[in-house]
Amino acid sequence: MFGFFSIQQYHSSLKEGKVTCLQAVEHYIGQIQSKQHLNAFINVFADEAISIAKKLDDKRKQGADMGKLHGVVVCIKDVIAYKGHPLTASSGILRGFTSLYSATAVEKLLAEEAIIIGNSNCDEFAMGSTNENSVYGKVLNAMDETRIPGGSSGGSAVAVQADLCMVSLGSDTGGSVRQPADFCGIIGLKPTYGRISRHGLVAYASSFDQIGIFGKNIGDVALILEVIAGNDAYDSTVSQQPSPPYSSLWMDTGTYRVAYFDEALDHPSLDPEISESIKNLLKKLKRQGHQVQPVSFDLINHIVPA
Q1: Catalytic residue among 35, 68, 77, 216
Q2: Number of structural domains, the chain?
Q3: Can you give the pLDDT at residue 135?
Q4: pTM for the structure as a whole
Q5: Within the chain, how many helices (H) and strands (E) appear?
Q6: Active site includes 120?
Q7: Separation CA 116–CA 74 (nearest Å)
């Protein structure tokens, strides 16, 4: 029985011969089929994924070095280009369109031997917060199918949440990775603007768009960021600052630094019940030994107009 806990654990099992890339891919294909009603995927590249898995297994048997993402099963939001594969942004307008090139982030995943198993459902053109606005139908939250998974990257979030892949890529303009990660109870990261190239990402608002990452744990998200971050001649807005080795910087100490906006929790537009619940959680985190402190942001009323 295949089980996934982290990329590090998976790679150790591959090296020890306890599992193969093919077994991993077949496991996820089975998971996707059995949970098809969640509607997380638009297209599943099953035959291609199986073929790549077999090649990686053969390569490993021959003693070749493993890439950083060797055999890691990934899904990508349907706003990220993958050459020769459908790209519709969950819109009927682009139904039948096949991408002519791959996004830089996708090329970097493939260069480190990741396996892209399919593309995931999202709000049409990434404009939405519920993943109910897709030409392919709504995505269901696997924790409670009567509730939304959040959006616009709801399919990418549910794919990780429901064990349909190991990690996934989404995109975040105003919360489209962070919010569904929260709703689905997984890790979601919107990196600093420009940290990851936007080349090959269908634009929503180019001055805010950023490819983001979903995972089961922080270590996996850090490793994906390490692989796909960095300079790119195809994106003039990408950061020129060197990318640190994120995966080696992560160390689980058991305690965390938590920041929050005072202005947000006391804002009149926030439901008092939600405000009180979050404040109680912050008190609980403090009692558990975590660093919890407010951060002042007096421009909160300008966020939506901006």
Answers
A1: 77
A2: 2
A3: 98
A4: 0.94
A5: 10, 8
A6: no
A7: 5
